[in-house]
Amino acid sequence: MNSDTFWLAMALVLVMEGFMPFMSPGTWRKTFQQILLLSDGQLRFFGLLSLLLGVALIWWIA
Predict the structure, then answer these.
(1) Would you state the torsion angle of the CA atoms of residues 40, 46, 52, 55, taken in this order, to the nearest 10 degrees?
(2) Is the dihedral of CA 55, 56, 58, 59 positive or negative?
(3) Tens of pLDDT, residues 20-35
(4) Predicted model pTM
């Protein structure tokens, strides 16, 4: 992996992160309000799930 691949991946993350607040800011705000209500354990579970999914995708693609 060279630096161009890294920066492309970072740019794609920004595109995906910006899509929801751009298209539907009200829904995005409501979603964050619901996330704030989750306990630390629930947030850790979703964080772990995201990490494992990301590692699995990297393993599958690479």
Answers:
(1) -100
(2) positive
(3) 999 999 999 999 999 9
(4) 0.68
What is the rounded distance in angstroms from the CA atom of residue 37 to the CA atom of residue 24? 21
Phi/psi at 14 (5° precision): -65, -40
Answer for the pair 20, 28: CB distance below 8 angstroms, yes or no: yes
The kind and range of the H/E element at 56 are helix 40-61
Q: What is the percent of the chain with per-residue pLDDT over 70, rounded to a whole number?
A: 98
Token reading at 37: 């209500």
Assess contact for 21 and 28: CB atoms under 8 A. Answer: yes
Residue 21 CB coordination number (10 Å) = 14
